[in-house]
Amino acid sequence: MKIYHNSMKVCIVLVLAVIVMAITPQMAAGVCFDCPQDSLRVALGVKLSSAEFAACQGSYELVDYVTQRVITPNTGTGTWVVAPKGAANIQLSYNGALVEGSVGSLLVLRQKDAAQLNLFSFKGKRYRGDLLVQNLNGTIHIIGVINIEQYLYGVVGAEMGTRGLLEAYKAQAVVSRTYAYYYKKNPQLNYDLGISTQWQFYGGYDAEETANPLVKQAVNETKGLVIYYDNSVIQAFFHANSGGYTESPENVWDASIPYLNPVPVPQDAYVLAIAKDGGWPADTYQWEKTFTTSELGNITNVGAVTDITVGCWAVDPARGGYKNIRTQSGRVTKLDVVGTSGVKSLFKDGIRSVLGLKSTLFEIVMDSTVGIWDALGLVEVHNNTQNMKAVNAEGQICALNGSNASYYVLSAEGTKAVPKSFTKVTIKGKGYGHGLGMSQWGAIGMAAEGMNYQRIIEHFYNQNRNDGRLRIAPAL
Fold first, then answer.
1. Peptide bond preceding 419: is omega within 30 degrees of 0, i.e. cis?
2. Which run of H or of E encompasses 294?
């Protein structure tokens, strides 16, 4: 405060201190729930107009979290239905009867004794832990609060399936725990994780009951362990099958990440020994998908498709442009679909999402594609032979099979008709997923070869095992 004097007046000027606070995602969303250090907030349903849940085992009480008023000290086995009441409060009914009284923006279905097995149900699935019910801007959010180790019981088996081996399950447990801790430490929403493969698949208590018994052993024997790089918890990305080679993040998404480098994974082929008759899960390793030109034109909105060009160029992480070298794995980073209405360019992992492919590790074969030997004995590949000429038996130069839409060639399979312009496009691919970090089937193959989980993790997340920057240690 400063005081100024003169003969005419006294002016008092107050200098106010301005306190600048960092606004967390929870504060911005109006969430005040204090999540325990060893637990996660897992979104089971968001932006709902209403929701139904029930306590199905153990002992719960329903509490207004803000006031700590116990709405009911024993929830029994009845069904609760919640809906937004305005932009902040919650309308609540039990077994069809409206619950009177004011209910705030956040309810907690809270375990009365966390030492016993307590289960609640939501959308036909059973889950461990507590349940948060939140009115966020006039919509209902259903968020499970669960101990991280118990959460992993419903993740590891759901992610890796029933055909894993102990060391592979251990690797998955450490990777999934790391993935969860990273998002707990770096929350972006009013919850830490979702339950779909957009995050990592969480099947709840039902997934525990159908999992391989080795899953719980793997989680318990790696309890608390996460992966650090330069003393920070890593983003432990993983996928089903790399198709034999993982990839760099800049060739899939955007930024380079130092502990995610391309590595060969010949053990991915182990899946073929598991499924000798083909089908799932063999088609995580190799697969095909065929489009007609009209289907492809409709998807990319280019009219009638006339050509397709494929680029496997690596991205320069420093400048962002393409380098004049191929991606190490052979993944496609640019696909141009040319049509009568223009050109649609698809890039990196966007190719997979737009075309519904299992991965971007693929090659394209058209039903019009032919290889022709030139005078030097080299093979030239042509996808369109509409204007190609040939020399007939009389030595005359003429169009292939005249004005007909197809012609005949002698191949290893015998004589076959080939269209001059392609009508079908077959994408022959390998792998399933984005190709970053740990390949789950590769990990199972490595475990079958006798590798332990530490060696599996070190292979996928750091090529130099001796630089000390990557370590597996208890979560802090």
1. no
2. helix 293-300
